[in-house]
Amino acid sequence: MLQPKSEAELADLLAAAQHPVAIRGGGTRPIGRAAAGEVLSTVALTGVTLYEPGALTLVAQAGTPVAEIEATLAAENQRLPFEPMDHRALLGTEGTPTIGGVVAGNVSGPRRIQAGAARDSLIGVRFVDGAGTVIKNGGRVMKNVTGYDLVKLMAGSYGTLGVLSEVSFKLLPEVEASACLILEGLDDARAIAALARALASPYEVTGAAHIPNRGGTSRSMIRLEGFSKSVAYRADALRALLADFAAVEVITDTATVRQIWKDQRDVTAFAGQSGDVWRISCKPSDGSGLAAKIKGDIIYDWGGGLIWAMVPEGYDLRASLGAFAGHATLIRASEGTRARIPTFHPEPAPLAALSEGLRRKFDPKGILNTGLMATAMPAA
Amino acid sequence: MEMPKPNPAILAKRARIISRLREVLPFDAVIDDPHETRAYECDALTAYRCPPLAAVLPQSTAEVSEVLRICHEEGVPVVPRGSGTSLAGGALPTADSVILGVARLTAVLETDYDNRFIRVQTGRTNLSVTGAVEENDFFYAPDPSSQLACAIAGNIGMNSGGAHCLKYGVTTNNLLGVTMVMMDGTVVEIGGAHLDAGGLDLLGVICGSEGQLGVVTEATLRILRKPEGARPVLMGFDSNEVAGECVSAIIKAGVLPVAIEFMDRPCIEATEAFAKAGYPMCEALLIVEVEGSEAEIREQLDVILAIAKRHNPVELREAADSDQAARIWLGRKSAFGAMGQINDYMCLDGTIPVSSLPYVLRRIGEMSKEYGLGVANVFHAGDGNMHPLILFDANKPGDLELCEAFGADILKLCVEVGGCLTGEHGVGIEKRDLMLTQYSPSDLEAQLWVKDVFDPKWLLNPAKVFPLSVTETRRDQAA
């Protein structure tokens, strides 16, 4: 395993590389077709380089454990706005998730609907391209339109455009209080309508999820966060607003609320069970219609705009959905399924050509996580 | 600012290009009369002017596609233009270019409150996007101060911000999808009503690419429900340092105001003389606005006021009603107009880490003395996006050049303390030649690769964003 100890070492290594490398942070998110080649790990690039609580900014080396960053922020009562998911339970992996992995996968959580995705909080990157050149883009300030925004391009590029060495984020204050509103017994379409009404209210919902089958009934969940009086006020207002859907239970115990949304974030309901797991991003009001076409267990997030589906092994969910506005990603599957069904959603030809063109520029030797994001299957 | 020399081969076939454009557009959508093309000779950076070869005003994505296909075949540079409010020269043409204006693309295509988005043609103005949804109590969050006039196309091109970014983000955080025409005429759809990209985040790199990657004709934008209420407080301090510390303390306290605006003494004096908003005469003034229900506003303001009091304010004024709130905002909103009353000015846009605020303001004051040009500061303090206004006399020979040199020094200072050249206005031609102070040649090369892929012939707005010397071979190969 290659394990560069500095950005310069990483650059030398890639400049000299003649064969593909498989890039790895903590190794907890094996998403995409397994890339060929020797493993190139970023775990030795660690440490928070800069943290300014008064400016809501943090800069860290890509291999820094997410837990270390979260602890650093917690000490100043701040947090990463986008609530990155921990994939370990769902994917049955072990190891230490890194912040570089979060960025490479644009990993977000339930708060994405209100606070944006990882790409929205990411304000700067340093990375090494496939030719071994160190490139920086963005910086450490939250408003920056100087040149092209390669920061966004790197987020979610799964190491196919470069190996991240350093990432910068804008942060948010940790909240004083949170509450979870629970509505039981709604069918999927009614639940999504209830979540939509909550999201279209002025009450700043930071989580809107629906679990169709939880111990024999369905459970819809809405999260509120902020100052305690404000949370209480908004919980009351939402209870009244949603009264015609179902009775609303309000949970205010902080530990319970946190656990509910941690489970939702990490999709723990599908952990430890057999079956492939797909993640579908769609227009929220399309959610229940799409889910109805799927043979499997469903969990909704993002007000219906994110569908987690657990289906029988090898089932081609994309084929059963047909054409729709959005994308479906195969998150958990056996090697066999992943060899047969592309992980990432096929793009229309002009967009696929742009993506391919970018990869050729950033990775001229074709050595960075080769084929990991391919949407066509290799010729047998 | 130097612009590339017009390509004589293109000028020589002017009549043929115009006649081909007329074949695909209504007669009045092709403007080639030299009296009329002068209307397109500059944007809001008025110091630089050059009439284009022609201007076209297509009315549909299909017409945009036809125009670009023809220009691509003829090898003619195209300069996309929203409403022409760019302060950076983003829409400045060259004599051999066609201006492609989106001014006739103003329709609202779809509003969807359940899914919280609006789809519009991009010639629509920023404020009229909110106008289309406000009867249902929704709004579009990015609010550049030119929002009455500026077009969504330009907002996407420059990734525009505004006063409320601290809470709502900038254009890129509120843009869900686009219909874009590539330089060869191909129409692509990227994103939509769903969140995030399924593959590479092309939308993310298109936003803020200053019209160099494609012409965005339609946009899907996130809309939000209006908060129940909002209220500003005004605070005066006897030094910039203390005001800067107060900003940091508010942010650290866990309150997230929607806006924290900062004005220094020269700016306060000028706006007071112009707008008579009743501001206190002091060294630094903050306007902090919070949102929510009455109880929520109270809770947040109590925290903010307690922090302000610890910083020995010379004035602390909470708006008691909407009239008083409007008065608090009046001076801030008239600041640019007020400065324009007393002088010509150049508005800069660098961003700095909030912690460097006192140092940067002190250095700007010192440089102001060295250059002998006045500066007023008015800016978004919460996110560190500065707007120093350098005062000069356009009629005095050499004053513009002096002002530009001073401006460049301020921007270099912004980069030196860890910030950037432009927070929300874009690079255009204005900051083009400073790009190498912020980025290394290889940093820039990576950005050029993106343009190589989207626009291999380098025909879209080619003389912008990057130093001309850096892009010369690519632009020449196109010609």
What secondary-structure arrangement, pairings included, does this model have?
The complex is a heterodimer of chains A (380) and B (479).
Chain A (H helix, E strand, L loop, with lengths): L6 H10 L4 E4 L13 E4 L6 E5 L4 E5 L4 H10 L2 E2 L8 H4 L7 H6 L7 H4 L2 H4 E7 L5 E5 L11 H5 L8 E8 L1 E2 L3 E8 L3 H12 L5 E10 L2 E10 L1 H14 L6 E4 L2 H13 L9 E7 L4 H5 L5 E5 L4 E6 L5 H5 L4 E7 L2 H6 L8 H14 L18
Chain B lengths: L7 H5 L1 H11 L5 E2 L2 H4 L16 E3 L4 H14 L3 E4 L16 E4 L6 E5 L4 E5 L4 H8 L4 E2 L12 H7 L6 H4 L2 H4 E7 L5 E5 L10 H5 L8 E8 L1 E2 L4 E8 L2 H13 L6 E6 H11 L8 E8 L2 H17 L4 E4 L3 H12 L1 H8 L1 E4 L9 H15 L3 E6 L7 E5 L6 H18 L18 H4 L2 H14 L13 H11 L1
Parallel strand pairs in B: 2-4, 3-4
Antiparallel strand pairs in B: 1-2, 5-6, 6-10, 7-11, 8-9, 8-10, 12-14, 12-15, 13-14, 13-17, 16-18, 17-18
Helix pairs in contact in B: 2-4, 10-15, 11-14, 15-16
Which key features would you list for this structure?
heterodimer; A: 380 residues; alpha+beta; Uridine Diphospho-n-acetylenolpyruvylglucosamine Reductase, domain 3; Alpha-Beta Plaits; 3 domains; five-stranded antiparallel beta sheet; four-stranded antiparallel beta sheet; 26% strand; globular; B: 479 residues; Uridine Diphospho-n-acetylenolpyruvylglucosamine Reductase, domain 2; seven-stranded antiparallel beta sheet
Give the biggest beta sheet of chain B: 7 strands, antiparallel
| Strand elements of chain B, count | 18
Straight-line distance between termini of chain A: 28 Å
CATH topology of the largest domain in chain A: Uridine Diphospho-n-acetylenolpyruvylglucosamine Reductase, domain 3
Q: Order of strands side by side in the largest beta sheet of chain B?
A: 15-12-14-13-17-18-16
Residues in helix, % of chain B: 25-40%
What's the overall geometry of chain B? globular
The CATH architecture designation of the largest domain in chain A is 2-Layer Sandwich
Alpha plus pi helix count of chain B: 19
- Radius of gyration of chain B, in angstroms, nearest whole number: 23 Å
Helix-strand category of chain B: alpha+beta
**CATH architecture label of the largest domain in chain B:** 2-Layer Sandwich
Largest interface chains and counts: A-B, 88 and 93 residues
* Average pLDDT over all residues of chain B: 94
Can you list the strand order of the major beta sheet of chain A? Answer: 3-4-8-6-7
Structural class of chain A: alpha+beta
Number of domains of chain A: 3
Tally the helices of chain A: 14
